[in-house]
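Re: [ENG-882] Designed sequences occasionally contain unexpected residues at chain ends

Forwarding the minimal case from QA. Structure tokens:
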């Protein structure tokens, strides 16, 4: 992955100076996948890489977040050596068999915050490995990346800002702290699609007043995710969310649906998770990304390592500005072509959101699932069984009709000898 990121580190948006790949001394990297030493390029190749590209030639990678996981993800991807290395290292870092949990479940265990965040993180990078195997030029031409919530960690690993093992450990600490914080207060998240006249801030204010009338001190109810125009996720105390559901028509909500999550993520109810994550990030070596990575906190590009450290912590208690991030990534002059976009990881929710944010950009969108394509698996299965059947038939003929088989082999050798003599 770091080799791919180094190759991709030519520019942000249209082009720019190529960053030199950096070594990560002491980082436990799994084999070839996470090597950080890259052979020097030829001068001509380096110069060519610095040239400004046509926008269509660049690619953008999007990394999904919590909620995209499913039992069975990463099935079939173990045939890629890099994926096997990642899951072997993940088991050492996490202390449990993440691959078995992803493949076999149970679903309740996989959906727990402390498990699904590491699972989505590793599965997304496994999808990158798959993409790099099938279409390496897509990875090499990547000029920008963005990740939704925990997906931001995967984007930063791909961009060379974080080491895989270090980032996975940070995700582990983050997930466990957020799980603990969510269990402290009955809270949740409400997905809302509103009409144009919907006033989300006013609705949240009235929901908080309702909670105060129930005796809840300092209640929380606020927008935690900006998805696309007229779509928000509101998070906070359960009583506040239930109030909004019951009064959906009053606040011009076309749809209000509770999400299957355990807490009010990206609100101040997650403050207990801030310190543990901050302590871990202080001990991790963070470097400037080799390509543009956009932050959920402000929708802008990360500038340097301290910036990354600060905003990754702030992200836990700040709303995810995904709609604003999509505008930043795809902002361009009128008439300029849009880059090819690849969502790498389980689910295709980010593609659906992109379609609502920017239809023209979505037309260049593709999904690389954390699962082997069914057609490819069927072909491999068919070829394998074909070889087995042919071998079994040949063995059966040798045992049942040995003279016939020997005669056939002898005739074939005689025919070959006669052909050679004829040519001579």
């Amino acid at each position: 992955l770091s080799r791919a990121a180094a190759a991709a580190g030519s520019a942000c948006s249209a082009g720019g100076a190529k960053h030199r790949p950096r070594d990560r001394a002491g980082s436990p990297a799994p084999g070839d996948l996470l090597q950080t030493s890259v052979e020097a390029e030829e001068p001509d190749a380096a110069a060519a890489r610095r040239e400004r590209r046509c926008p269509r030639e660049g690619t953008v990678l999007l990394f999904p977040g919590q909620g995209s996981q499913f039992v069975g993800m990463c099935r079939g991807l173990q045939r890629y050596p890099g994926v096997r290395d990642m899951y072997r290292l993940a088991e050492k870092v996490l202390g449990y068999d993440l691959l078995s949990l992803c493949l076999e479940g149970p679903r309740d265990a996989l959906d727990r915050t402390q498990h699904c965040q590491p699972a989505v993180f590793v599965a997304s990078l496994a999808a990158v490995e798959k993409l790099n195997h099938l279409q390496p030029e897509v990875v090499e031409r990547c000029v920008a990346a963005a990740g939704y919530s925990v997906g931001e960690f995967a984007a930063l690993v791909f961009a060379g800002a974080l080491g895989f093992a270090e980032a996975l450990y940070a995700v582990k600490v983050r997930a466990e702290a957020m799980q603990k914080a969510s269990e402290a207060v009955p809270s949740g998240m409400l997905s809302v699609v509103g009409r144009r006249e919907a006033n989300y801030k006013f609705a949240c204010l009235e929901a908080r007043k309702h909670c105060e009338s129930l005796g809840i001190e300092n209640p929380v109810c606020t927008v935690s995710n900006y998805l696309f125009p007229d779509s928000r996720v509101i998070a906070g105390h359960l009583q506040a969310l239930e109030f909004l559901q019951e009064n959906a028509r009053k606040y011009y909500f076309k749809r209000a649906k509770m999400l299957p999550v355990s807490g009010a993520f990206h609100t101040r109810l997650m403050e207990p998770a801030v310190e543990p994550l901050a302590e871990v990030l202080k001990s991790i070596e963070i470097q400037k990304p080799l390509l543009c990575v956009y932050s959920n906190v402000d929708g802008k590009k990360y500038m340097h390592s301290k910036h990354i450290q600060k905003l990754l912590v702030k992200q836990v208690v700040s709303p995810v500005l995904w709609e604003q991030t999509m505008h930043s990534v795809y902002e361009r002059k009128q008439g300029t072509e849009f880059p090819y976009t690849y969502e790498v990881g389980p689910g295709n929710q980010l593609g659906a959101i992109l379609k609502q944010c920017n239809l023209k950009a979505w037309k260049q969108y593709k999904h690389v699932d954390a699962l082997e394509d069914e057609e490819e698996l069927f072909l491999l299965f068919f070829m394998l069984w074909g070889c087995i059947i042919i071998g079994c038939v040949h063995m059966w003929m040798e045992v049942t009709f040995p003279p016939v088989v020997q005669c056939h082999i002898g005739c074939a050798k005689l025919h070959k000898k006669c052909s050679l003599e004829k040519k001579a």
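QA comment: On inspection the terminal residues look reasonable. Residues 2-52, 375-383 have pLDDT under 50 and may be disordered. Proposing we downgrade this to a documentation issue.
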